Model the fold of this input.
Amino acid sequence: MSRKKHYHSISDIVAAVYCEQKLIFDRDLGDALPLPIRKKAAEGTLEHQRFAMESQRAAIDKRCFIASSIYGIDSIEVVTLRKWRDDVLLQSKMGCLFVYGYYRLSPCMVSVMAHQTWLVSLARAGLDWWLAVLDKKVNK
Done:
């Protein structure tokens, strides 16, 4: 049976430590905060959860087959390409489709590239060009 994780905001933790009476009051009578404050608290909690999910995904999903085979698994180039994948490609349906296709084809492409050094040179040139494009966009 799977249990849904419940995250406590730092505000909840501090309030519990700082004022035991408030904790008891909230438990017995419900949250008596004004709506704008509750809205901000909910936004903060959602942002913490989004950050936690992003960091888990980044820790798990380190696939970048072609770039990893050319530059090394944790090189700055590969990290840059992963960030572009997460921040740009995975934010649209077409980008997700591209990433899906890439993950399906790239392991085979890396195997072929292992025997064809000219393909490695071609892929490196293409990736270097794309990294330069991304660098110009970031440093505008």
Remarks:
- The chain has a mean pLDDT of 82.
- The first helix runs from residue 10 to 18.
- Helices lie at 10-18, 20-29, 35-60, 65-71, 76-87, 93-113, 117-138.
